[in-house]
Amino acid sequence: MSKPDRSVGPWPMLAAALLSALPTMTLADVFVIAHTGLAASAEDIRDIYTGEKEMLGSVKLRPLDNHAAQSEFLSKALSLNAGRYEALWAMKSFRDGLTPPAAKNSDEEVIAYVQATPGAIGYVTSAPPASVTVLKKF
Amino acid sequence: MGALLVSGLWCTSTAHADIEGLTVHGFADVYYTSTGEQNAPSGNTGFKLGNLDLYLAPSLTDRIRALMEDVVEFDDWYSPGSYNGQPSIDIERLQIGYVVSNALTVWIGRFHTPYGYWNTAYHHGAQLQPTVMRPQFVAFEDHGGILPAHMDGLWATGHDNLGPGRVTYDAYLGNGQRILDGALDMQNEGNADSHTALGTRLGYEFRGGRLESLWIGLHAVEEQVDNFVSGAITARTDVRIVGGFLHWTPGDWELMGEYYGFTNSAHDATSASHASNAWYAEANYTLWGLITPLARFERDSLSQHDGYFQFLQGGKSYTRTLLGVRYDLTPQTALKLDGNHTDATRNGGQAYNELHLQVAVRF
Predict the structure, then answer these.
(1) Which residue of A has its CA nearest to B59?
(2) CATH label of the domain that carries residue A122
(3) Which residue in A94, A95, A110, A121 has the most chain B C-beta atoms within 10 A of its own C-beta, making it the best mutation to test that interface?
């Protein structure tokens, strides 16, 4: 029984296919938005989404996750993946009694909530309207 | 418990209309134990049910929140003679808090006593902790622990930025513990002997740089603990505990340790105090985000002339070397295997080996 020929396999074709697909795999920009008048730094955003900061001044913060953009936001803003983010909040909830950010399914839903809710912070991948404050673009 | 379950499920079912809906979370674990200890207070070899832990964490208003946790478990550790095979329900935490600012939240009720790392980080969350078993001296009061794992009282906690990291603090007071039937009792129904426990934990957590995530700190607890036998006090002991802790997750490593130094003295006497100590150190390393080999060493040296350790059934000196491995089947499901050698011969106990295999989930 002869050994399989490993000198030329499917890898060159696979690599070429992956390279050709690269332009379409570019990650979209993520805009972190807030209710009008709210100001927060990149460090604040990290603290807010990891449960370390609940208030900005006297304003109760209401962070919101966006299923449509979550993986990109977690990667760019928090350097976390979805599994570690979920585990982090499981621990925060158990240890400190904190409630994880509520979640919406689309940019439109996030924008509508942020517009209407004092203290709200969310993130979207489409250009946000002027009726919300853009805190940071990742 | 039923009310908690029903209310939690109801809240979940109505959460769609309100983004701040409430969900029941919890932990459950089952395990297999093989022990060489004769007449082991923790039971014999075989399959065992661990804990069923359910908790709710509602935000009642912008500043008021609550934490309610119930545990169903078998409390057979110190009452094997009265063990009837039925589980019991413990109100683990029932605390209501007011958020003053990011730097201060004040809680009232029953809470996990904030000392060291393990007690507040993992507690009944078996899926969270790296090993099957807690360090023995950090065990719950009714499982041989020598520390007040729970407290009924007031607790102020918070953190604030300082330098390259942040200062963390906890300060609390509550009903003093007493010893009933060889176990610490935190007096949930009122402070019968009017002794107040005071404690604090002060820490610093590095953020960024080479020491990112390193949390180090000091802790202290002081209280008078009376030993009760058939309703009568047989010893009064002033318990003073001072120690330190660290927790660090550099890369895929997790390093932790806690130290407790005891300087206990008889309350009614002028005799010298008795020094005791307890500590552990643990290291683990996670491979491919899934497999975590780990090692832990535990040691306590507890004075048997001390009215506190003399009457606590877990108040015996021991050393334990533990090796184990954890495999995360999913982010919510852990399979853990621990083996340890324990030597409790310094106070006339046994030397023995144990093996624990556990499946732990969170939901």
Answers:
(1) A99
(2) 3.40.190.10
(3) A94
Contact A93 B19 (CB under 8 A): no
For the segment A21-45, what is each residue's pLDDT rounded down to a tens digit? 544 445 689 999 999 999 999 989 9
pLDDT tens figures, A91-100: 999 999 998 9
Helix (H), strand (E) at residue B360: strand B351-362
Q: Largest Cα–Cα distance in chain B? A: 66
The structure tokens listed for B52 are 């069923």
Contact B311, B235 (CB under 8 A): yes
Residue with tokens 């500590």: B279
Report pLDDT for A18. 52
What is the Cα–Cα distance from A27 to A123, expressed in whole angstroms?
Answer: 14
Give Dmax over CA atoms of chain A in angstroms: 76
Sort B96 into a burial class: Cβ within 10 Å, 0-12 / 13-18 / 19+. middle
Tell me whether residues A64 and B19 touch, CB distance under 8 A. Answer: yes
Domain count, chain B: 1
Write out chain A residues lying below 8 Å of B95, CB-based. 97
Domain span at residue A95 reads: 37-137
Total domains in the fold of chain A: 1
